[in-house]
Amino acid sequence: MGIEAVNSRIADIQSRMIAMQTQQATAAKTSSATSTDPASGGSFATALADAMGTQSSAASAGPAKSYSLNGKGIPTELVGYGNGKIPANALEKVGNTNHKLWAPAAESLNKMISDAKAQGVTIGITDSYRSYSEQVDVARRKGLYSQGGLAAKPGTSEHGWGMATDLDLNNKAQAWMRANGEKYGFVENTPREPWHWAYKPKSV
């Protein structure tokens, strides 16, 4: 397990312990102070050992990691590859579909789709990463956005960074996304395209 994953788990544990403090506020003060104080070595060590062997809770739904971004909010590791030229080992599948995104975006999207499903909301996906040649084809078929069409200029698309997805959303799912999408790092940022959701990672 990498140091970033460990740090994420520790942050999750600390937030859980703070919640425990709140829940036990009505208990005896001495009991509360000794069993829930994050500074208590024994209590923290026990919680850490427990959390290391379990999955993080839904409370940590949002993007936990931070990345070095350029002036346009693109991770520097992706900038090095080029738009529409992201290698396969930097991409990850979305669920059991053939769609792929930059790995952190795919992980967050998978978590979001799973959490929505648990709440009775179905989120489908119709498009994801686009290579440069695919961007050229989409621009040819749908026209450039700047000219009233639905495609970005090839080489500039958020899809070309593996950081945007087109979702299949009914009214209920659209409302859910607008209420919850940002918790997972996804924002609705393209007028005329309510299906287009871009992943915005946190900056270091």
Annotate the secondary structure layout.
Elements: H1 3-23, H2 29-36, H3 41-52, E1 66-67, H4 76-79, E2 91-93, E3 100-102, H5 103-118, E4 124-127, H6 132-142, E5 164-168, H7 171-180, E6 186-187, E7 196-199, E8 202-203
Parallel strand pairs: 1-8
Antiparallel strand pairs: 2-3, 4-5, 5-7, 6-7
- How large is the radius of gyration? 20 Å
Separation, N- and C-terminal Cα atoms: 20 Å
Order of helices and strands: HHHEHEEHEHEHEEE
**For the report, how would you describe the main beta sheet?**
4 strands, antiparallel
Poorly predicted sequence stretches spanning 5 or more consecutive residues:
21-43, 45-60
Kindly state the number of beta strands: 8
Mean of residue pLDDT? 81
- Which sequence of strands runs across the widest sheet? 4-5-7-6
Structural class: alpha+beta
Shape: globular
Seen as an oligomer or otherwise, the chain set is single chain
**So how many helices?**
7
Strand proportion = 5-15%
**Residue share in helix:** 40-55%
Please give a quick description of this structure.
The protein has 204 residues and is an alpha+beta fold.
Could you explain how this protein is built, in words?
This protein is α+β, with helices and mostly antiparallel strands and 204 residues long. It has seven helices and eight strands; from the N terminus they run αααβαββαβαβαβββ. The strands form three sheets. Strands 4-5-7-6 form a four-stranded antiparallel beta sheet. A two-stranded parallel sheet has the order 1-8. Strands 2-3 form a two-stranded antiparallel sheet. A hairpin with an 8-residue loop joins strand 6 and strand 7. Helix 1 (3-23) packs across helix 3 (41-52). The longest helix has 21 residues, at 3-23. It is globular and about 35 Å long. The model is unreliable at 21-43 and 45-60 (pLDDT under 50).
